[in-house]
Amino acid sequence: MSRSADRSAQASMLSAAVWSVLAEQGLERLTVRAVAAAAGCTTGLVMHRFPNRRALLLHARRLLHETTRERVSALEEAAPGPREALRAVLLQGMALDERNRQEALVWMGFLAAAVTDPELIEEHRRNNAAWRARVSRLIGDAAPDWPADRVASAALALISMTEGMAAYAAADPEAYPPSAQMSMVDAALAAFSLSH
Amino acid sequence: MSRSADRSAQASMLSAAVWSVLAEQGLERLTVRAVAAAAGCTTGLVMHRFPNRRALLLHARRLLHETTRERVSALEEAAPGPREALRAVLLQGMALDERNRQEALVWMGFLAAAVTDPELIEEHRRNNAAWRARVSRLIGDAAPDWPADRVASAALALISMTEGMAAYAAADPEAYPPSAQMSMVDAALAAFSLSH
DNA sequence: TTGTTACGGTAACAGTCGTTACGGAAACGG
DNA sequence: CCGTTTCCGTAACGACTGTTACCGTAACAA
Predict the structure, then answer these.
(1) What CATH number should be reported for the domain holding residue A4?
(2) Across the interface, which of B26, B116, B193 has its CB nearest the CB of A115?
(3) Chain C nucleotides near the protein (CB, 7 A)
(4) Are residues B72 and B160 in the same domain?
(5) Which pLDDT band, with edges at 50, 70 and 90, does B7 fall under?
(6) Looking at the whole model, is its pTM more than 0.70?
(7) Is the predicted pLDDT of residue A196 greater than 80, yes or no?
(8) Euclidean distance between CA atoms A69 and A67, whole angstroms
(9) Does residue B97 share a domain with residue B10?
């Protein structure tokens, strides 16, 4: 049991190393050797944990999805009501602090890498559909009398907005401080009649 | 004069080749040889036109900016009023057809490449600031009585939304058809009291 | 035509890439 | 205690990278 636990922990550590390299050095320098250096091991360990580089990236991508999914679920459960949950869930997807900013960079890097990788692009699509469904459900709870198309339109607008804002803030933190991001989200929620 | 015109034309052709490779093969395969192959020449020509690979990417990035800037300006001038101009300008930034979708892919690729390239990231920031200023000006014309902070907030929301939507639609065209993108923009404009 | 210059294709360079093979060390069962 | 197996670091492979040097060729001046 300790064996598989170690293997899983190593896989997580290597995934974290992938995120680190992706955020700090970009997609072009996301090499097996760079990941191994960031993880404090050699390429031998990396290639023994994963059959090849693409499998390593795919695992890191899936683990990132799972991590954020758990975080979002926790935020949703901790919120006092559906509108507070919606706001909290949207805010966590933006670049409000350095950690979230790096996560946005990683997110963007995976999306750019997915252009040529069928498995990564399929992972993105599945992930994105789940994300859209979650926000749609939150909006449906926040405005139970809305028709489905209004819910869908608002959900699409809100997730697009947070995605674009996260990219902007990740690329230019000084131009998009946390206060601007938060006021934008609140203004959008107010415009869509979803303020708490 | 024909010399410099040829040189400029070749630089534009190589930039188009950069876009093509970036959209079809992604950032990882954006090599000098791939660009030369897409342009139908050898690496010798590429390296005679540009001192190195980064200069080639930077020129392609700047030319893409200039091209879209001219297109946006033309749309703005052709619009009958400020609200129609705002809508047209926002719509061109999304992935409504295959051409715009590829452009969104290229846009995303450059942004991902800018993570490690100081010149590219500065180019993005300058470009993005100009884009935000333009949309803010359009909103100011469309709603002259709004206070500045409301204009800024709406502008930020709208450009973030279109940016995110373009990325989503570029990565998953079937999930985000043009009709969904357009209805989302119209819903957002209506929500922000900017409908025409 | 002849000499000169600019252009661009060819080939090679050193370096890095993903991946593989091998060998030593550590952990395990007996 | 030893034999076996698992683990992982080391070193190497061929392929590919950006970049450079070289050289033939076409265009121009005289």
Answers:
(1) 1.10.10
(2) B26
(3) 6-12, 16-21, 28
(4) yes
(5) confident
(6) yes
(7) no
(8) 5
(9) no
